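Listing 4. Sequential folding, example run.
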Amino acid sequence: MLGKLLKYDLKWIYKVVVIFYILAIIFSIVARVTGEIENSLLFEVISKISISCAISMAVSSLINSLMRSWVRFTQNMYKDESYLTHTLPVKKKDLFNSKVISGAVCIITTMIVILLCLFICFYSEANMEILKSLLELAATTYNTTVLNLLLLVAMVFGLELIYVLLTGYLGLILGHKSNTNKMLKSILLGFLIYSITQIATVALIGIGGLFSGDIMNLINTVEAVNIETIKNVMYMCVGVYFGYSVLLYIIARKQLNKGVNVE
């Protein structure tokens, strides 16, 4: 049953998001083709405009991935669709798991599309050599490999987005427990949860600074700090965002299991 729920959730979310994917890729191709035409001011201007449009569509696809996931959750769990949803022989945990997985999958595919668009727009042997040199330099500086460095950055960014997704879900669940102004309260609670966790993150880094002088220097000054410290902070971000995601998931699922007030 989870597979069927996931199928319909993904289909609903991608119905709009895929349009931004297509537009981003089309603008990237236009930028690439017109950029290859030399000694033409017109095509150079078109290329620059197309690059801006491609980036705009890519960013919009990321924003819509989150927004569509939240809208799908609201409509499916609390609006008119909810009357059918809650009559299905499906556990609430499966309904919630489907929303979490579909949102996470959409975030991952959007990140891939963004990378694809950047590759189409800016690929050249010269740029690839520069990028390769920068990555190898960064990897050497951080005493790691290029692959590990890329995975670390991707994990930080991806886990942060999933944490934001779950923050929105929990805000919607708590807000819809109210009898009035449900959406307004959902938004406010979502921002409140986000703010609390961000303050907690700063506090955790501060606590880490008590045990590491380099981390405290990183907090208090822009002076050069030990590279190992920066890498440790990135690893800390992975752990923190993963921990937040697990905690938010557990709390949201428990709150959802307590009951749903449909509109």
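-- end of first protein; second protein begins --
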Amino acid sequence: MNTGVAIFATALAITAGVIYWPRPPSLDGERWFKVILATLFRGQVEAEEGDVDAWEGLVRSFVPYHPAGRLPERKVLNPKATAPGAWLPGELLLTQNLAAIDDIAKRWALLYESEAGIEARLIDPFELGATYNPKSLGDPACTWDALALWGAGDVTFRDALLKRVGAKWLLIEGRPDRLAGPSVLDAMAAELGDRAVRVPWVEAPLVDGVQAVGTALEQVIQTWRDRVIVVSEEAGTTLVLRTLAANGNFRDPLLAVLSVGGVVGGREGEEGPFGEKVCDDWVKAWFTYEGLDSESVRLTPYLSVQFLDRSQATPGSAHLPIAAQRFPEPRDDHTLQTLESVDLGVLPSDSGLPVDQIARGLIAVTGCWALSRR
């Protein structure tokens, strides 16, 4: 073949690959996370020789979920508001039922304690199909039953998943006195072992915090083969976002970002870099396909789980609204889509939250989601 023709054909193929690269499977982040948590609790209860009522009690207490309950703060405060995009199955009826109730506490109860929500949490995970089955991501040891056993302390699922993911996990601390819920970083570090690297919170100007996160990333990314997953709490999430926006070299090795009660949109009533005004302006300017792009033609997931104290007037916890803990949908700036916002939903901010199971669930859903986007 003529050299010029060969080069042209190769370039055309690359171009076609960029334009028509296969789309990853459609997944509901909250559904996957909450079913994973329910499965872990099942394993715990079975190991303790408990019954179905004991399992259902744990799920009711610590796994708030409704299949049509996206953006719960909107549904509870203003249930008559229209849905973003098309209605989900059952969503219109849910909002109508919520609108018929005047009491906010009773709206929360309907949202998270109704029969539809309970059934969705207690579903046999096999009914979700192959797309949600961890085994379909490439390791025969990652079965639903093995996940349940992890809830009882058997680490077969965990070890197989972490090996398959093949990444270091960078755990970025936030301000310990302003956490929206119980910290999960100690429990995650215990599960991750030598794959985890902690970055402690240090009271310092924002630029110093960003530098500390950047230094930690440089230490775990030594070669082009190295991969990293970043987990952050509270203001640690702000530091992560600023660091990734400032240095594109960190974005290609990045498999996922997980924010746990993180400051994304800013805290109510706070001034400075972690307040509403600064954070909201930054997110609008930089949380875009262009602002956080990568050279790799794949989606980098930005997952977030939010803490909820139902007694607060503004849905959220510790003056950090639910919406401010959630990554927004990236602004469409007409570039190749290389990041996605994944909403894992809310967790109760109770001090009694079983952080060991929550940590396992977060590792599982983050690792599985990253594998689904390879």
